[in-house]
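Usage

Read records sequentially. Each one opens with the input sequence:
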Amino acid sequence: MDKSRKVVVVTGASQGIGHGVVEVFRKLDYRIVATSRSIKPSDDENVLSIAGDIGDPATARRVISEGVGRFGRIDTLVNNAGIYRGKPFTEHSSEDFDAVMNVNMAGFYHITQLAIAEMEKHSSGHVVSVTASIGPTAISGIYSVLAAMTKGGINAATKSLAIEYAKKGIRVNAVAPGIIKTPMHAPETHGVLGAFHPIGRMGETSDIADAIVFLDSAPFITGEILHVDGGLVAGR
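and closes with the structure output:
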């Protein structure tokens, strides 16, 4: 087994931003450990697909252990998995809360803990999480409490982890998107959603994937929340 090629773990990898991240890292000749609930096996010998609920610690353990078993190392973790439930605050059910906390928070926590433990063995690694500009910047008309709680919490955790592991060779960053064209948003909503951004349009999945690759290739950047949001966080 050739252990010289870098290995990236991508959660929420079957569609949208996660699928775009997998594609761009493969073009850079990384080996990929890709996971999501619905992901299919890959014909590419350099892509290991693992289906499962990322909020379940057992899934996180499988992703890291099978990734190391197949490729010998973990260099980068991309925490992309996330869900959004847009409702007025008082209309959220316990199921809504549990679902968002499971994917957005537990999904981040368990696999990040295991990935960093693996990275510590080699004194090298990078964790980059996809959060949201809606965390620090509320927008009238967009119901964002659960997103703000979870994605904003990961922004804060990013800075804490960056400082905790800075002297251990492990960097921790985040990319905070605006509203991105993914299957989550029906095409007929794109015009309205695009108008929320000062730049006047929605983002593309490639905008986020390129930002993640940039952070992965920038060894002097850690603890950064990179807003890729068409100016959304700057103001409206």
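Summary fields computed downstream for this record:
- The beta strands are 7-11, 31-36, 47-51, 76-79, 125-130, 170-177, 225-228.
- The CA atoms of residues 155 and 174 lie 7 Å apart.
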